[in-house]
Design goal:
Number of domains of chain B: 3
Number of helices of chain B: 8
Order of helices and strands of chain B: HHEHEEHEEEHEEHEEHEEHE
Strand content of chain A: 25-35%
CATH class of chain A: Alpha Beta
Radius of gyration of chain A: 15 Å
CATH topology of chain A: Beta Polymerase, domain 2
Chains: A alpha/beta, B alpha+beta, C alpha+beta
Oligomer: heterotrimer
Helix content of chain B: 10-25%
Distance between the termini of chain A: 50 Å
Number of strands of chain A: 6
Order of helices and strands of chain A: EHEEEEHE
CATH class of the largest domain in chain B: Alpha Beta
CATH superfamily of chain A: NADH:ubiquinone oxidoreductase Nqo5 subunit
Number of helices of chain A: 2
Largest sheet of chain B: 3 strands, antiparallel
CATH topology of the largest domain in chain B: Alpha-Beta Plaits
Shape of chain B: elongated
């Protein structure tokens, strides 16, 4: 049997380039698959933006120090609000200029930013 | 007479509504009137469980060695093992019947019954007796069976094949072939005996007298390669079970070819024991 | 301007026993805007990867959802296998495909019943669930569980299913076809059902793409998007898989997609059972996970995303699951705009919401 392994495509991106890069993807007809936060260590988060075109996945990896504010991509992909609010509520990453900002009330959780490393 | 008229009228209504596109479901509903009910009259007619149904975990207490692997693999921390007291406890409400403990039990004393536990109004905690074992350092372990008395030791027949390392469920054993070193972490060892069953040279035992190669590189015990594996190509089905088992990656099975790297082979006979068709034997070098 | 009213919908609503809350902004009887709100039952299952090793994580991820539990178990296993660089035996891939399609039948029949219930067709609901019971019995016989199967593990399957049992499964499903046809004909032809679904909640092709919708929601709008086409998971490329697509984009189109997928799944299981090779069903896996891997699965509700990142120990650094409902919520919000208040329950159900999935 011939197997077709899933393509693993990870690109690094800087905070300043994020919006232009995502806008390029949108213009090329990519679909937003998901955004997820990863807690690398006590000082760094990795935010993974995944895009799909013709069933091939491309991931943008954004490494930020805790406390860095990120520009929201809801202006380009409106549907990103579900993920951005999730990452904000769980990790405490602030997204600027969001089209639909729940301001920490998207998830009703007993403590604020439970997945942020406690020092 | 009136009854017949009513029935005819009802049927007519149905046909007309059906034509109009309504009541498409009528036939199914009328059909199910004559059928048996889909439900079971539950307490009167009991449910038949399938052979594979994961209902509840049960334990064969006397065979348990209190190794605690079941408690370690349990994703919900439903199992508690108290070796010193000889108690095996399961929190029935916490158990999710994933059967991970049953699969990982080295003594096969856990089984998954296809019956559920009886519903209750409190969270049931079941405790079973297992052979009590004195704490490690205590000397007067009265109930301890003789075979698991003392720490795991390796005799000087060891060929450092490393199969015991692979078999160990708790990663307690380390083997270095180059240094001819065999070491056991007595804290981590749960004395399940999985390594003893696996050892091709039968060098392992509990509380054995041989000091083993555990402390010093035993020069005298350095394994002398006496024999290597050989395959009977008539019998071989090229399943590659030996390739997977070989601790030294000496065997390669490719299509209908069985190849042995004679340099790498350490003569541990692991391939001989796994071969399903008994095609492998040892030959003298 | 008509007077505006805000009506809260959920998190407790008779039609949907799942905790989603919508603030519906109404002008007269028409919904002009909807603000979704979830997060009532966030469980933090993804975070458990820090204290549960990767073998236990498969059992945990499986419990994200009671309907597509096999798909979640498979997704978690596949992402871990990918991170380890392990290739599982062919028979295991076939078995996974068969069980995954079986759970698609079970999920769609469940959904058809719930949909009938949403527009008040109780007896149709009962009959859909009666037929589904046969599928659940097949699951119990072959895996040991009716809802949570615990048969998938990193490295293959925990149990083999004998060829006789697989044959019997395919035969039972073939016999079930006539009964399912009888029920789905009601959905397609009955005038009262059509009144509730045809032309309701239209999502155009452009909107569906713009809102990043997935699964039957997007395939009902004429977009060919089905992860089974890629061959990244399962053996679909060997079975001659063709995605089911409907053009209309309304509730009826989405229902038709799911109805046709039920029959397609029965066909796929038949083909897979005929082709399944003999051999082992699991392989050895390393004791630690390193590296990262992202994989997507086509689940009954649509595309699900799994991402595993190892840390060189038996614990994962991150296990991410993005469930289909999560990304269909924006599409739902779009569909609600301009609809009648009375259609809201039908529209909420049309994306096949699983809020518990969304709140991992």
């Amino acid at each position: 049997m011939e197997r077709i392994p899933a393509v693993q495509n990870f690109e690094s991106v800087e905070v300043s380039d994020l919006i232009s890069k995502v806008a390029d993807f949108k213009a090329e007809g990519y679909r937003l698959v998901q955004i997820c936060g990863v807690n690398l260590d006590d000082d760094t988060y990795e935010i993974l933006y995944s895009f799909d075109k013709d069933h091939v996945l491309t991931n943008l990896r954004l490494d930020i120090a805790i406390g860095t504010e990120v520009e929201s991509i809801t202006g380009i992909y409106w549907a990103a609000f579900v993920y951005e609010n999730e990452v904000h509520d769980l990790f405490g990453v602030k997204f600027n200029h969001s089209a639909l900002d729940y301001q920490g009330t998207f998830f009703k959780i007993s403590e604020e930013t439970p997945w942020k490393p406690k020092k | 007479m009136i009854l017949i008229v009513l029935v005819v009228a009802a049927l007519l209504c149905m046909i007309i509504t059906d034509r109009l596109g309504f009541f498409k479901f009528g036939r199914t509903i009328l059909g199910s009137i004559s059928k048996k009910t889909a439900c079971r009259m539950y307490p009167v007619v009991p449910r038949e469980w399938q052979e594979r149904t994961r209902g509840s975990v049960s334990i064969d207490g006397p065979n348990c060695i209190g190794c605690g692997i079941c408690a370690n693999v349990c994703p919900t921390n439903a199992i508690e093992v108290d070796k010193a007291e000889g108690k095996w406890t399961i929190h029935r409400m916490q158990c999710v019947q994933c059967s991970a403990c049953v699969d990982n039990c080295p003594k096969k004393c856990l089984t998954m019954e296809n019956q559920y536990t009886i519903p209750d109004v409190v969270k049931i905690v079941d405790t079973y007796d297992i052979p009590a074992k004195a704490a490690k350092k205590a000397s007067d372990g009265a109930a301890a069976p003789a075979e698991t008395d003392g720490d795991l030791t390796c005799a000087d027949t060891c060929i450092f094949c490393g199969l015991c390392v692979k078999a160990c469920p708790t990663d307690a054993i380390t083997v270095d072939r180059k240094e001819k070193l065999w070491k056991v972490d007595t804290e981590a060892c749960v004395k399940c005996g999985a390594c003893i069953d696996k050892c091709p040279k039968k060098s392992l035992s509990f509380g054995g007298t041989a000091p083993a190669a555990s402390t010093a590189p035993a020069a005298a015990a350095a394994p002398v390669k006496k024999s290597i594996a050989a395959v009977d190509e008539e019998k071989c089905i090229y399943c590659a079970a030996c390739e997977n088992e070989c601790p030294e990656d000496a065997i390669k099975v490719d299509g209908t070819e069985w190849k042995l790297d004679e340099e790498k082979c350490i003569g541990c006979e692991a391939c001989v024991s796994v071969c399903p068709t008994e095609a492998i034997s040892m030959k003298e070098v | 301007m008509a007077k505006r009213t805000i009506i809260p919908f959920g998190p407790q609503h008779p039609v949907l026993p799942e905790p989603i809350h919508l603030d519906l902004v109404l002008e007269d009887e028409t919904v002009v805007d909807a603000i979704p709100s979830i997060g009532y039952i966030h469980r933090g299952l993804e975070k458990l990867c820090e204290i549960k090793d990767f073998n236990q994580m498969v059992y945990v991820i499986e419990r994200i959802c009671g309907i597509c539990s096999f798909g979640h178990g498979w997704g978690a296993s596949a992402s871990i296998e990918g991170a380890m660089g392990v290739e599982i035996p062919e028979r295991a891939e076939y078995l996974r495909t068969i069980l995954h399609e079986l759970s698609r039948i079970h999920s769609h029949l469940l959904w058809l019943g719930l949909m009938a219930d949403a527009f008040g067709f109780e007896s149709l609901f009962n009959h859909c669930w009666r037929v589904r019971e046969t599928v659940l019995d097949l699951f119990e016989k072959n895996t040991g569980g009716r809802v949570i199967f615990s048969i998938c593990k990193a490295g293959g399957m925990r149990k083999d299913i004998s060829n006789e049992n697989l044959k019997e499964m395919a035969d039972t499903l073939n016999e079930l076809k006539a009964e399912i046809k009888e029920l789905t004909d009601v959905f397609i032809n009955d005038a009262s059902v059509q009144n509730r679904m045809t032309g309701v909640g239209v999502l155009t092709k452009e909107e569906a793409i713009e809102l990043c919708a997935v699964g039957p929601t997007v395939r009902g709008s004429g977009v060919v998007q089905d992860l089974r086409l890629t061959g990244n998971h399962g053996v679909y490329h060997e079975l001659g898989f063709e995605p089911v697509v409907e053009e209309a984009g309304d509730c009826m189109a989405r229902t038709k997609v799911r109805i046709r997928e039920v029959f397609q799944s029965i066909e796929l299981i038949g083909k897979a059972v005929a082709k399944i090779p003999d051999g082992p069903v699991d392989c050895k896996v390393p004791k630690t996970v390193d590296g990262e891997f992202a994989i997507r699965m086509e689940q009954p509700r649509g595309e699900a995303f799994y991402y595993a990142k190892g840390a060189g120990t038996k614990f994962l650094k991150r296990m991410r699951v993005r469930t289909p409902t999560n990304i269909n919520v924006p599409a739902l919000v779009k569909m609600l705009g301009g609809s009648d208040l009375a259609d809201v329950p039908v529209l909420v159900l049309t994306i096949d919401p699983c809020i518990s999935c969304t709140e991992r």
